[in-house]
Structure formats: structure tokens, C-alpha cells
Amino acid sequence: MLERLLPRAIELDDRGIRLLCIPLFGIAIPLVTGHFGPIGPDAHAFWFGFLWFIAVAVAIWHGNRYFHPARRILYMLAAIVFYTVPCSAGMLWAWYAANALPADWAAIRSSTLISVISDFLISTESAWRFTPEYRSFWRRLRGGGTPK
């Protein structure tokens, strides 16, 4: 029965939003949460840091991107607990360790929370906007039947 509710595999073309949002998050989040600490623009680590934080955004975005939209709803909490949170927190902790800085756990928590919320909102919006199968799944689940 579950197979009837789940939509077929789909192609999601979200290149535009990825090209915009991944660098945006990779640059904005560390600036807003203070991950650079005492490291300023005169240090190479500052500029390498932007590349690192963009890599964090890429890892989170692409790691969560390939869940099937319907299954994504079913597995969202598991993905957040077992992928997004450890990936974000681990890569942010590695940033502090690589720069011989004490880990700023408040900043790590803030960035991880921003990542989780962004992941949920963007992936749900992308699936809704770009996949008619996703909307069809919800109509069928609510008892609205299969659209013609």
C-alpha cells in the first residue's frame, strides 16, 4: 500500500537555488555566528575559512538532497539527527581545531540550528515547487485521490 502513495523517482533541477544559497550560507553563517573569532581578513585562515564554511554548506545541502521527497518527510528527523547535526557540528569543530582555537560551542550550536532550519525549509520548499509528484503525494495522503 505504501508503494501506491510514494511518488516515482523524480529529477530535481535546483541548480539555480544551489548556486545562490550554498555560497550565501557558507559566507553569512560564520560571520553572523562569530566563527572567525580573533582571525581577521589579514590572515590566510580567514579566507580559507570561507572556503571551509562553503564546503560545510555543500556537504549539508548535498547530503540531504538525495532523499526521495515522500521518504524525506518520513526520514527528516533521522536525517537531521544522524547527518545534518553531526556533519555541521563536526566540520565546525574541525575549523576551531585546525586553527588552534577553543571550540565556541555557542557558535557551533547556533550554526547547526541555522543549518537544520535552513535544510528543512529549503528542501521542503524545493520539493514543493519543483516536483508535482510531491504535491500529488500529499493530495493522495489526504484522500484527495490521484490527480488527472
Architecture blueprint of SSEs:
Elements: H1 2-5, H2 15-33, H3 44-65, H4 69-98, H5 105-130, H6 132-141
Helix pairs in contact: 2-3, 3-4, 4-5
What does this structure look like?
With 148 residues, this protein is an all-alpha fold. The protein has helices spanning 2-5, 15-33, 44-65, 69-98, 105-130, 132-141. It has a domain at 66-148. Helices cover 75% and strands 0% of the residues. α3 (44-65) packs antiparallel against α4 (69-98). The chain starts with a helix and ends in a 7-residue tail after the last helix. The mean pLDDT is 80.
Described by strand count, sense and barrel closure, the largest sheet is: none
Quaternary state reads single chain
Share of helix, binned: over 70%
Total number of strands: 0
Radius of gyration: 18 Å
State the order of secondary-structure elements, H for helix, E for strand: HHHHHH
Question: Mean of the pLDDT scores?
Answer: 80
Q: Output the structural class.
A: mainly alpha
Distance between the termini: 20 Å
Shape: elongated
The DSSP helix count reads 6
Low-confidence stretches: none
Strand content: under 5%
What characteristics describe this protein?
about 150 residues, mainly alpha, about 75% helix, about 0% strand
Briefly, what is this?
With 148 residues, the chain is mostly helical. The protein has helices at residues 2-5, 15-33, 44-65, 69-98, 105-130, 132-141. It has six helices and no strands.
